[in-house]
Give the backbone structure.
Amino acid sequence: MTDLTGRTLLRRDEQHRDRWSLYGAESGIEHLSQRLSAGELKGYEVFEGFKDQVLETISPDVSVAVWRKGAVLFEEGSHVDVAFFLVEGKAAAYLSKYVDPESVSAAADSAGTENPAGASAATVHHRQSERGGGGGTMLLSAMDFDLGGDSDVQTLGPGEFFGEIGALNGWPQSVTVRALTACRVVQIRVPALRLLKRRSSAFRRKIEAVYRERALLSQLGACPVFRECPRPLLAELAQRVELVPCDPGEVVFEEGAAADALYLVRSGFLRLSRRMGAGHVTVTYLSKGMTVGEVELLVDGLDRARFTVSSVGYGELVRIARSDLFDVLRAAPAGGRELWRQAVDRIKETGGRLADPGSSEFVEFALDKGLVEGSSILVMDLDRCTRCDDCVRACADTHGGRPRFVREGDRYDNLLIARSCYHCRDPVCLVGCPTGAIRRADVGDVVEIKDEICIGCATCHDNCPYDAIVMHDTGGAWPDDALPKALRGTPRAVASKCDLCYASPAGPACVRNCPHHCAFRVGSVEEFRALQRSDGR
Amino acid sequence: MMRRLFSPRTAVSAGWWRVFLAGAALSLAAPLVRRVPGVPGGDGAWTVAYGVAATALLLVALAYGARRRMPRRGPGALHHWVQAHVYGGVLFLFLLAAHTGAASPQGALAWGLWASSLWVVGTGLAGVFIQKWIPPALTSGLSTEVHYDRIPDLVEAVRKRVEVLAASGGESVRKFHDADLAPVLAGPTVSLVYFFDVTGGVQSCMRRFDYLKRLLDEDDARRLDELRVLVRAKFEMDAHYTLQGALRWWLRLHVPPVVLLAVLVGFHVFAVFYY
């Protein structure tokens, strides 16, 4: 630290401000710290026990902010790649659909009340159950934060984490958080959060404990199988289940392995396949909120897994042991009926796939090419495309002469999946960016790269499974006081990718400027299938 | 039959097609209506009205080119402008016929206007036809998708790879390469055969590979299989080069005469007002 010159220190501060600029503009931040040293970070409870080296590594991704009274730290539905740790002050977490934000503002004015919105007649969880309706798949990301107790507002105090579940899982935030008093908050960006989780089992347990306390109960309660389960029993279950993280391609269990648990998908996608001949047939895939393992648990005599289950990308599962599941089903028989319904659907689907293995080709393609992952994939109907490249020219014109996609890629029948950002629901490109240049644009699932912060390290380019991030040489070189030092004097490159033209009210230029109406943005496998030729040539 | 006429499956927008049918019906019916006793306006007024309408449609059709050059700020989606361009262009011809009373042109300017109008609309319709026909042919007949501008480089890359592969093989493979493959791989080839068969008779070319393979040892047979894949890719690139080339080249037959037509119409309008 001491060997840095004054100019370099200034540049480091400037970079730190750039990295946190998103949280400065038009926000309620009164003060944002400069980059903190390891020693300074150790002064905060959340970083106790970490080595200096780890803290030095994460320091660019950590800031301490003072939010003024009444400021909104984040709103429900927004993507925030930061976790917040409250050091001083009080904040309120609430769902604006149930709580009048004005009442929370008023509560902020008379801060100090434990329950600013006053006692409510029903808990959020109960209201959600009333709204719930019938079965079907509930997307966990769309579910409510468990505010606990009988309140529509949860008061957060010193020593509490918030925002970390959405940040780590790439989910939109499920609540709005507003400062009830002036709040001093440690803000930790996702790369640092992941590193801290990896380096300290105590930290990981702490995060998991918060997850179990705030989100898991709601998620289990919203799952059709557990909807009728008494809340105390569900709370007990939430403490007993195992949280299982998965890496891309990791096999959760093999076909023929002992079947002793039900798995609920928290995030990511799972591939279910069966052995057939010399290979494997992909039967189906599971997304957030879906379960696997029910057939083996319910059908007598089936004590071995009928599928090989593997993770498509990074994912998180909830593993519910057989005995725990049956305890719950005894108390809530309706859950058993729902589980049987799902099991019958799975058996039918498996039978269909095995009778016609060719029908699994599309499922395989959709999983391999990430169709299930993307929220806005650029697809071109080659039956109409005259290869005029007006789409590419329009993209280049909109982005300073540098097109953000290539009209090449994988083909399925008449459809071309252009090499353009998919705007993944769980964007792995965000992981490991050393500067935070790649981030959620806070417009839907849009991920953008800030040119001015990008140091051209190509981490996002290497991480992108779909080859959708391109490195461009700017023609310049890094200045002598650039940080990290390794950059100095080297050619300056920047990563670039599609930003969905989110700043333009007219929408993506590629789609708008296709003269033959053959460029589409699709957000689901169903939309993709709808574009396929009807004759199936 | 009537339902299909008014809601054609091949048109991108049935709405535009209906507007076109209505416009065509009006412009064809108008010469009859004007002859009905009691309909106001003399011959001169009707003629001027047709001329003004035809000029307006020509401007609409020309505006497509301007919109195409404004990808960032241009109003509306470009595919709507294409519809206006195509249908407006054809209606322009109908109105031109009504404007001239479908009489034989008199004088150089009239001949020039008629000839350029017919040429522009004819090449435009030819363009619509090949744009409907070539893309599905490329998609359903070929397994590769390739950028037109990159084809020469890709063919060169294939040629080099084939050369290296053949040089590492036995005498039979080398001779086969020199006699049969090298000329084919010299560069991208434009061939009319792709207009009739998008695979370009690649199957018959592959028979030579099958025959030769029987005479080779295991290593050379494997090399020959690799060569077969590369040569097949080259044939597919030739098909793309020919057909994507046609999609680009027809514009050269269409766009320059449009400029001539616009100049002639401008001169005609100027002459009418000036004299």
In short: The interface with chain B takes residues 382-388, 390, 393-394, 397-398, 407-408, 411, 414, 416, 504, 509, 511-517, 537 of chain A (CB under 8 Å). The longest strand of chain A covers residues 279-286. Residues 112-144 of chain A have pLDDT under 50 and may be disordered.
